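On clarity, I found the account of how folds are encoded harder to follow than it need be. An entry of this sort, consisting of the sequence and the corresponding backbone structure tokens, reads as follows:
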Amino acid sequence: MAEIRKHNQSAVHGSKLLMTGSTMALTDELVSLSLRPAIDVGPEPHRKPLTEAEVEMLANRLLHEPTGAPLWIFAYGSLIWKPDFDAVESQHGATRGWHRSFCLQMTRWRGTRAQPGLMMALDRGGRCNGVVFRLADDDRLGQIRRLIRREVGTIDDAATVRWIPVTTPHGLVRALVFWAGPKGERVSRKLPLETVAQVLARACGHMGSCAEYLYLTVKHLEERGIRDRNLWRLQKLVAAELVAIHGLNAAVGSH
């Protein structure tokens, strides 16, 4: 863990130099306005959660697919700032053929059935810069189980778990990624950023708000020296939405 802490401290120091003069419009104060209490009513009736047997089957398949190679996880969203595994190394990573997209409707966690939110996934096309984490060799199976329970809701969602090639400063690695290429009735592709911003500024569930999720993702990407142009524009739009919703002076969210 000392290795990863040292690497992260170096990345933060370098990114502060890189991002000097760039201030997010979406702030802690604005995000706090998007938060409100919500009750978890549980999964929708037609979405049957994974059974323990299905978790075990998927975990064992993923465990053996690297065939002895190091186990890398590609993080592009919340796994960057809220990992659920024991990493011994992290590096910047870029993958071609994928891009971040708020394309997956959610009625739980950071949304409700009355006010659905949007979850970020990887969609086809473009390029995505993120972080790859190398998991500890000890208890790989247990760590994969934890990731599945966190990231995979149903057996249909398991189809979004895949291996992708990721370019790092030290070469190409094969990394596991979650929520890549989702399909189904919950997926809304190519939504205008203005439409996405309207949703993110208003949706909140028992785990927090969509605005908070966006804020934390952009903030931690910036700390690592990673600028996603769409997310950077989106955080400005969400800040403006929150200013308008709460009748604040326009100067509050503009930097």
